């Protein structure tokens, strides 16, 4: 009876690990996680292969193992298909079913106002720094600075996600420049 209980506990653990792996893959597909949980998937596949070579006497545990193995194989095929679609650029994430267009428009309006004010402030600081270094001219206009900030925000968003970005004037080199850094 002890071996039966041990097999049952091992199957329970594998079932819980598959559930966790399913959640991790859903988070990866939604863009929450940055990396595919490949190692976890490999570990579970190894554990299931270990059961393949075992002779299970009890019919209920044998049936349970077979259902766990077939469910894992089905999930694996589903995950592989989604990964292939992501690689081909054909997968569209459906994160919410809410009407986010109104929220996005409102957020863009407030960002535009904030970014224009920030661009004007940085342009003034850049002009002051250029004067202290003895450089001729006023430097870039507020519009050019705003365009630069927007481009840098987009680069940071594509690389690191929606993390807050801070801009400052760096005067450590030969001429002043705008420095981009992630805020924590």
Separation, N- and C-terminal Cα atoms: 55 Å
Helices and strands, in order, run as HHHHHEE
- Uncertain segments of ≥5 residues (pLDDT<50)? none
Q: In one word, what is the shape?
A: rod-shaped
**What gyration radius follows from the Cα positions, in whole Å?**
27 Å
Spatial arrangement of strands, main beta sheet: 1-2
Mean pLDDT across residues? 82
How many domains in all? Answer: 2
**Main sheet specs:** 2 strands, antiparallel
Structural class: mainly alpha
Strand content: 5-15%
Helix content: 55-70%
Number of DSSP-assigned strands: 2
Tally of alpha and pi helices = 5
Write the layout of secondary structure elements.
Elements: H1 2-30, H2 38-52, H3 59-88, H4 101-133, H5 142-160, E1 165-170, E2 177-182
Antiparallel strand pairs: 1-2
């Amino acid at each position: 009876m002890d071996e039966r209980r041990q097999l049952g506990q091992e199957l329970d653990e594998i079932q819980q690990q598959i559930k966790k792996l399913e959640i991790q893959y859903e988070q990866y597909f939604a863009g929450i996680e940055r990396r595919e949980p490949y190692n976890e998937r490999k570990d579970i596949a190894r554990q299931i292969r270990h059961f393949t070579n075992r002779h299970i006497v009890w019919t209920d545990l044998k049936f349970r193992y077979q259902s766990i193995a077939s469910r894992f194989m089905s999930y694996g095929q589903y995950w592989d298909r989604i990964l292939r679609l992501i690689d081909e650029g054909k997968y569209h994430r459906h994160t919410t079913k809410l009407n986010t267009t109104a929220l996005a428009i409102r957020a863009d309006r407030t960002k535009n106002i904030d970014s224009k004010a920030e661009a004007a402030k940085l342009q003034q600081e850049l002009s002051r720094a250029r004067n202290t270094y003895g450089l001729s001219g006023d430097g870039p206009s507020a519009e050019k600075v705003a365009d630069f900030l927007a481009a840098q925000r987009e680069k940071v968003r594509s690389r690191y996600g929606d993390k807050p970005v801070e801009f400052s004037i760096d005067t450590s080199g030969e001429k002043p420049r705008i420095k981009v850094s992630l805020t924590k």
